[in-house]
Structures are given as C-alpha cells and as structure tokens.
Write a structure and sequence with these properties.
4-stranded antiparallel beta sheet; alpha+beta
C-alpha cells in the first residue's frame, strides 16, 4: 500500500470550483425527417425531397442536472422546430449551406457551446444506387 495520493484525475479541469465532478451535457437528436426544397437544379428545388437530420448540441454545464427544470437546458423540441423553420423557410442549393445555417442558429438561439449537424438525402437525385448522401458541419464558439 502506498502513501502517495491517488492520481486517477490528471487535471483540475475535471473538477468544478467546489471540488466535485463537472457535468457536461450533450443533447442528441437523431433522424429528424423534414421535407424541403433543396438542390442544385431548379427541378430538384421545385419538387423537393426528404432530408434526415442528426444533431449534436454541446450545452456545457447545465443547471438542469440539478434543478430538473426544462428552462435550465436546451429544449430539443424547440431545436427540432427551429431546424424545420430554417430548412423550410427558403430553398438552399447545398447541404453545406443548410447545415451551416442550422448550426449557427442553434448556437445563437440556444447558447450552445458547439453544434454538429448532419443532413442526409436518403433518395439523392443521381443515376446510381446509393443508400444516402450526407454532409456534416461542426461549429463551435471560439474560446
């Protein structure tokens, strides 16, 4: 048996000011299905298509872990409504732009530290058999 201190924790970053463990919250939304008018060709934008969104929101420390109150965290229902609004209020040409706008709005509206957005076309308009095509965008606040 050693008299040396336990070195399981490598840095003070893992503890909060009070010396207890820090809790970091990530909210994940998978498979949000929306019908949008997105695409490079005019026909693709006119006809529209279904997109699937996967979203990961790094909230950071959340009071909801202690208070159990919805107003102390990010409401994922409101996030889904925001994504639908952004995706359906105008026609985008690229998934890259749509994902970037969605990520920026989530950061702005919900105060997230970082956001990852993936948008997939399960039936892409290409002449080959493909399960899906997708784009991922990662945005985070500068430190």
């Amino acid at each position: 048996m050693s008299d040396e201190p336990d070195d399981d924790l490598d840095s003070d970053d893992e503890l909060d000011i009070d010396g207890g463990p820090q809790t970091v919250v990530t909210i994940e939304i998978s498979g949000l299905s929306l019908y949008t008018h997105i695409g490079v060709s005019a026909a693709e934008r006119e006809i529209g298509q279904r997109l699937l969104f996967d979203i990961r929101i790094d909230v950071g420390e959340s009071d909801a872990t202690e208070t159990d109150r919805l107003e102390d965290t990010v409401d994922y229902g409101e996030v889904c409504q925001l994504v639908a609004l952004v995706a359906q209020q105008r026609n985008y040409r690229t998934l890259e732009r749509l994902c970037t706008v969605v990520a920026d709005r989530i950061i702005e509206d919900f105060g997230a530290e970082a956001v990852w957005v993936k948008a997939a076309k399960p039936e892409p308009p290409i002449p080959l058999a493909v399960e899906e095509v997708s784009v991922e965008v990662w945005r985070e606040l500068p430190e």
